[in-house]
Fold this protein.
Amino acid sequence: MWIKEIEIENYRTFQEKFNMTLSKNITVISGLNGVGKSTILAILTNASELKSKKNKKENGKWIKKYKPYKTLNGSPFRGDFADVIMFDKDFDSPGYKTTVFFSDLPENQKLYNVKSQVKFRASIHSGHITKRTYRKLPNQELYKKSEKKVKIKRYRLIPEKADHYNNERKVKWPSYYMGLSRLSPLGEKDRVTPKSIPEKLIQEIIKIHKEILSEYISVDESKMTNLDIGNKYPKSTINSGYYGYASNSNGQDNTGQIIEAVLSFQLLKQNMQENGDKYVGGILAIDELDATLHPAAQNKMFDWLLDKSKELDLQIVFTTHSLTLLEHISKLQLKDPDCIKVNYLSKFSDDPGYVKIKENPKPEYYKHNLQQTYVQTPIKKPKIYILSEDETTRWFAQQLIEYTSNSDYSLEWLNVNISWSHLLNLYNSNPSNFSDYIILLDPDLNMELENSPLNEYIKKHIVQFKVNSSLSNIFILPGNESIETLIWNYVHSLKASNLLFDDPNLANYGINYDTLRNIDKNGDYINDEKHKKWFKDNNPYMDTFIKYWIKDNIKDVKKFMGIFSSAYARIIKNLSD
């Protein structure tokens, strides 16, 4: 089950009727501030909830004890509009406001209290909340708790009664909303209480955390901790061999909270099956997914969310302003249109009650809209200059970028041939002169190789640079051989059944398994120089060869591009400031 469409009318920004369709897996909402993105998330998660089954007890003994339906931090699977949107007595009126359209409904719709369309009306209620404060006692490690009841007005969205559904209950379906309050810095809190995480999930969380943030932490030696800081979102922290929870950055905490939210649905699926209930998916909404995450981590986070969405039948909807993330998503959306949708929202000063929606826009569209100034003039990006050893290096790097990224990198590829040692000597002489340069080195300089020439260079020189770091301007392309040898060895390692030999760019010109083997039947191509000659002689086919090499080495390529993208974003930002 999933939400395929939402309709909003006569509420704040959405005075005119607004309809937005969603993807079964991931829906991305973007746009300038004040267009109603958070309102949409609140409505989506307000539509449903899943309560834990009630345990049964007779004569003081449990006859049936069910596993609870709670998130890893102990929260219920439900969203409440009033928890997200503050009531405005001057503008918020009661009455019909929204319709949520469901798809792929379960057979027993009454069991889930669901139908294809569920309408919601707004209702204003009087109530109170308990405000708790904690005051540290002088010269003691003790806190005094104070509670005060405060009267409030709550603005709720309640399901309307309909035929065969004479109730105002929400749809029985798990939902969870992650708002920006999850980013509240730990250092601003006076009271912190640890909360446990199921041991069987700790290692999985740490492993995912490490992959997304490219952290150098030991999975076996690290621990996860949830810290209750007095709001809805406990901090998700890692204690490693290098730092404790107090040293966690907001980016680390945000990553941990999102991972835990997704894995909460994974655990829920397992618990429901053990309780004899049928799991029919759920919905997770995340406000500002990209907040506090660097560009490479944003992309990795999205890739992981897409995989988990498919695995768990989990509908994920999030907002973002990140151009680098939107560019990454746009490329994936073209390859997987049924599972990814981008909705860009706009509003206009001469028609304030109308919100325009554009589905799956090209990157140029939201670049212009998100970067425009008050006088509607697009911001022109500065250029980053690329220095490399030769034309082959530039070709190889351009192929990696073209295949793995939809980003409109602002790069100037300098048509110069300079040996790698001279490039490093130039940079090392005065790094500040090359702050807007990126230097690309061939794979045969891989520092993991025992006889890497670059390792020898670093031993003999006092260097002022790092290599293959998001803080670096110098990068070694993926692989461990010269580019020509890399392609030669790859092509000649393939079996005759490999799809490469069916590629029309080769097959139509008589290039097949046998012709490639016959090229070296006498064993003439045995060194780098011979491989360079072969590379040059067969240049028309290299674009096809590299495409398949990238596919078969995508893990290393993505790792390289993640670091490259992060460094690129850093350099561009520094040039723009």
Summary: The chain is about 35% helix and 25% strand. The longest strand covers residues 117-136. The radius of gyration is 28 Å. The chain has three domains: 2-55+63-126+151-182+250-371, 384-479+553-576, 483-552.
